[in-house]
Design a protein that fits this description.
Two copies of one chain form a homodimer. The first copy, chain A, is an alpha/beta fold. Chain A folds into three domains: about 25-230, Rossmann fold; about 235-380, Nitrogenase molybdenum iron protein domain (Rossmann fold, 3-Layer(aba) Sandwich), CATH 3.40.50.1980; about 400-430. Helices cover about 45% and strands about 15% of the residues of chain A. Chain A has helices spanning about 15-20, 30-45, 45-55, 70, 80-100, 135-150, 170-180, 190-195, 215-225, 250-260, 275-290, 295-300, 315-325, 335-340, 355-360, 395-415, 415-430; strands spanning about 5-10, 105-110, 115-120, 125-130, 155-160, 180-185, 205-210, 230, 240-245, 265-270, 305-310, 325-330, 345-350, 385-395. The first copy, chain A, has a six-stranded parallel beta sheet with strand order 1-11-10-9-12-13. A five-stranded parallel beta sheet of chain A has the order 6-5-4-7-8, sandwiched between helices. In chain A, strand 12, helix 14 (about 335-340) and strand 13 (about 345-350) form a beta-alpha-beta unit. In chain A, helix 5 runs parallel beside helix 6 and helix 5 (about 80-100) packs across helix 7. The longest helix of chain A has 19 residues, at about 80-100. The radius of gyration of chain A is 26 Å and the shape is globular. The interface between A and B is large, with 130 and 130 residues. Strand 14 (about 385-395) of chain A pairs parallel with strand 13 (about 345-350) of chain B.
Chain lengths: ~425, ~425
């Protein structure tokens, strides 16, 4: 396979839409499969989970819940170095997410009328962690740590078994590090169904988080219909790099490759005003790709790679905000100024020494981020994702006298007479107090 | 029709699920209708909107967009008193939502590694406002004012025409008050389709807000599949009242009636330890209902009304949190203490002088709230609903040296070699700087 990376210069505004198109996803055909899985899990509970695991994961599991001892002993299977690394990452993730808590501010909107909002943890949350050959234990940290800081009382993990029917010890160790001890050996759409509807063993959750394959994604999409919240819509991972002549071509090439290795549908885009840099980056990609274990995946992914040259920072910014990348590296001299004007992105990496993989693991920011342009309307996972806000209000006697008449008039105009009466009664009474 | 309201005493824990069941909603049959509407709007654009308006709203409209002059002149059709009332409500809503903004906090998670998150307005938001006989102009204020405070650059309103083909002037006046001048005369599922896919006249939006009938609700549910965000799932409105002997039975009856007048599927529940109070409330409901213009709707709604007596505050709280009401009135002597223990609710009204209708219009809190138990995982609309958070991170040379090795180890364990290399390259280079 030969790697072909062309440079696109000053594409016209009209061509942007096509240029920035994501690899298409078609989930229509999954709907029936998900419907069948949901039906079986609702009907047969645990037994359906065991059956699906046998047919989809090709392994038999004896018990759905991982016992405490297995979780506790997981560190015996993890090197001391990796344990330390996980603890460093956990520390940074904890520190950053803890800083996202906001105080309650009571506001007197009108004399005698006090309003406030209070963030309250979601009681029970379900975290889906992909398993298989490369267990994403980092995702355990990214989801379980903020859930814990938020104060969620019950945090559960669902993750598919490996071929041996067991959960990967790195996932269990990350769970233990984050303080989660309710772990279930179940993956795919059936795990989502179990968390949404509940079975004999798995109690239903209020919100489901985490990445997954197309079945998981379609199942998460579907459970929203019955009122289960999800973190965000999912799509293939993506990286945009904005670079100028102060950037290091080798570094950028390595970042683009690290994004590309996620999967054949990952997308990588380089934006620059500097054609010479772009050429250097392409050269460096061709050199660095050699010998990477996932070369095959990377080659497929790079087929949708774009290298785009524009004339001005203004144009680069417009293009970046139009694309709304999940990950955005800004390796430019005026990075701070450029960053100020970014309006659509999941997570932004500034300067030459902040590779995307730093945020994937250990800077402390969350790596569960909006893809596929969802950054135009969605945040990545953060402390708020595990809480909901309740508003409170209290009007005193004086308070209702101040705003009561306005309420009466508006209720009347909306033809809601009983709404009006609820105020009129109080107004009448408040004058006697 | 005779009103039958029984008192349920100390229901067993096992019976709660049935007792707290919401009126069921079945939207399955709507899926085909919504599919057809989406297909037509995608294919025929504006013409499809005009056709649907003719067949669904029974009126012909000459132009989709309401012209500036009509919006400007709307105040000629609104009494001075109502104008003042709307301005008072707008002031309080503005004051409360403005107080929800949070500062950016930069956090050094590890020496040389700085992380922060920044709330950025969603560029273009679409507000759906139900029209017809009772135009919900208050919802215009509730959605457009926080959108404006958030800094959304483009705020559009879609609302169905009345029988005369025109948008109700109260809606236009509220839009003007809130500073919105992009208003379209289009309702139903076709309005949601237009905001999601765009037509010749209506540019697509990033997020759709607002209540609506079953078609609107199903259409909002459906557009999430293509990546358009929505405010929250919608269901019938509901009120729970927690009251003790310090409460005023007449007030509570009026609140329950004001909730019931929303629609036949609205639900109202009274919780108390005090049976005498419960009896008084039922008596007051029977008295107050007489002569209310929506008596018919109220009678239907009250068929699902529950009056429940429990022995302890603890049990009342458990029941309330299990139900997760959209609106919760706490008229109890120890209201502050009770409020502290509320974990699931949309908006809470404290004391005898804070009727639910005060929050519907003018205390300043938002009236777009999670229904149907969604308060377990969803917030009501607030300032954050119109923003998304972008995370930023910057590692210095020192920073990457501190966390780089941990990243390498974790990337290696997740079998993401290119992720590791992106860090290794920097570590190598950083030692030479």
């Amino acid at each position: 396979m030969k790697l072909q990376l062309d440079i696109i210069e000053n594409p016209s505004r009209e061509s942007w839409k096509d240029l920035l198109k994501r690899p298409s996803m078609n989930s229509e055909y999954l709907d029936q499969a998900i419907h069948d899985i949901f039906f079986s899990v609702k009907r047969n509970g645990d037994q359906a989970l065991l059956d699906f695991t046998k047919s989809f994961d090709g392994t038999e599991i004896s018990s759905l819940r991982v016992d405490k001892e297995t979780i506790n002993n997981s560190e015996n299977y993890i090197s001391q170095h990796l344990q330390d690394a996980i603890r460093i990452a956990a520390y940074n993730i904890r520190k950053f997410h803890a800083s996202q808590a906001n105080p309650i501010i009571k506001q007197e909107t009108s004399p005698g009328v006090i309003c406030w909002q209070k963030a309250v943890p979601i009681q029970r949350v379900g975290l889906y962690i992909p398993g298989g050959s490369a267990p994403l234990f980092s995702t355990v940290l990214m989801l379980a740590i903020p859930a814990q800081i938020a104060g969620c009382k019950e945090i559960i993990i669902c993750t598919p078994p490996g071929k041996d029917g067991e959960v990967n010890p790195a996932i269990l160790f990350a769970a233990k590090t984050a303080g989660v001890n309710e772990v279930y050996t179940i993956g795919g759409g059936q795990a989502i169904a179990a968390m949404a509807f509940g079975t004999e063993t798995i109690k239903p959750v209020n919100k489901i988080f985490g990445p997954g394959n197309q079945f998981v994604t379609a199942a998460k999409q579907a459970v929203q219909k019955i009122g289960i919240a999800i973190d965000m819509p999912a799509g293939p991972s993506e990286l945009m790099v904005m670079a100028d002549e102060t950037a290091n071509a080798e570094f950028i090439a390595s970042d683009m490759l690290s994004q590309a290795e996620h999967g054949p549908d990952s997308q990588v885009i380089l934006l620059s005003k500097d054609k010479a840099l772009a050429k250097e980056v392409i050269k460096a990609i061709k050199k660095q790709i050699q010998g990477l274990p996932r070369e095959n995946i990377i080659m497929q992914s790079l087929e949708s790679c774009k290298v785009i040259i524009m004339n001005s920072d203004e144009q680069l910014l417009q293009l970046a905000n139009e694309y709304a990348p999940e990950h955005l590296i800004i390796a430019m001299e005026n990075k701070d100024e450029i960053a100020e004007s970014i309006t659509n992105a999941g997570s932004v990496f500034l300067g030459n020494y902040t590779p995307e993989s730093a945020g994937d693991y250990a800077t402390g920011t969350n790596h569960t981020l909006p893809t596929n342009g969802a950054a135009k309307a969605y945040s990545g996972v953060n402390l708020d994702s595990f809480m909901k806000k309740i508003t409170f209000q209290e009007a005193s006697n004086e308070g209702i006298r101040k705003i009561g008449h306005a309420i009466e008039l508006m209720a009347e105009a909306e033809q809601l007479e009983a709404h009006k009466k609820a105020v009129s009664l109080r107004l009448k009474n408040s004058q006697n107090v």
